[in-house]
Amino acid sequence: MMAAYGVPSTDVQGLQSHGRAAVVIGAGPAGLMAGLTIRHEGYARVIVLEKRSHFTRMNVVNLHPESLCVFKRLGLLDRFLETASRLVDHQTHVFIDGDELFNFSDHGFEAVVDPNARFDADDVLAGFRNETVYSINLADLQRLLAQAALERGIQILSPVEGRLQPRGDGSYAVAVYQNEIGDPVAILHPGLVVLAEGAKGMMVRELAGECDTGATLWPNENWVIGNVRCHPREGLSQLLFEFDRRCKKLTISNCIYLPKRGEVNIAVTVDDPRMDPASIRELVATQAAKTLATTGVPCGRCEPVWHSPRAVRIVGRSARHCRIGRNVVLVGDSVGSNSPVAALGCTLSTSAYSYALRHLVHDLEGCAEAALARYEERARACVARWHHKVDEIRAAVEADLRAKSRHLLGQERRRQPLPEPL
Prior knowledge:
Blueprint lengths: L4 E2 L14 E5 L3 H12 L4 E5 L4 E2 L4 E4 L1 H9 L3 H7 L1 E12 L2 E9 L26 E4 H14 L3 E3 L3 E6 L5 E6 L8 E3 L3 E4 L6 H7 L2 E3 L8 E8 L5 E9 L6 E9 L4 E7 L7 H19 L8 E4 L4 E2 L3 E3 L3 E2 L3 E3 L5 E2 L6 H6 L2 H12 L4 H48 L7
């Protein structure tokens, strides 16, 4: 079953970009947050271009306290809290060959929400467990942001494609296409273009160059994702680490309980990235049964109501350039990406990039070259900091889990009676 929300869009006819205008290419969380930030900081005209007609990404992201500060500054916090689920506990369970060896909890906390809070690279948090405070699926977040954007006079055009066209002065115009073939319906000449088409976007590769390889939370990450109906009373984040008897093979399940949706979202690591949809559905159901058993959350049949059609291969990326020419900047996964457990793109899109864009808008009133250089420095510093922390956390968690597992496994073996002599 594929859940989807139509992208709320405006009419492409009569599209113009008079006055102080900005164009955002991509209506994911990064693009919509960029549009809302730029509009809030004084741009008279903001146009968002989206090639898809529906929001269909049902996977879940965890957001940090800094995101709440940005939502409050933009006047979106109450609306966000109506939709998102607060995480009151972060649990970890460790299994060996199906037997649970130990578990522990990190209880959530109330975040201090300051709409005027600064955000620099040093503020990128050291972890992604008990420091995340709310969870929301991407489609719900996109729908929330898109509706708010329209209410604030931002034009969203869908389904259309925006393509950059170089101008003689080093800046770029944007051509808007309604079909893959044919002439554009409009050529826009914005003062600022925000490229938010994601890590796999062709324009990012063509114009910004190759990305550097960054960190992932676990080596050779492939994830399948799905949602299962259940009845959680509270929001809960849960990690299941399942080792084999020799502590060599490891399967990770990242589980987020969303009481406001009546679902648990499950992301599972897999060895085979070529899994077919039927196998993915079966694996999601199996892991749902395991995680529900550890929490006692009531559930009927563990049948996924949604699952990813294929495994997602994770490759940590960091863009070498976060600006193009004299008027184009990158945000979101276009700048950096890594593990879905860490949710780098979405977390930074709702905090660090919004902060950097806020300053860029005001800095552009002076020297444009200096303003773009400062934006690039801020954006790259946050991604570099995040990847560095991913490396630290991965090494520490993996070493700790393996050490505890081997220790407890050794104790278990010593407690077993010696075999009877023949």
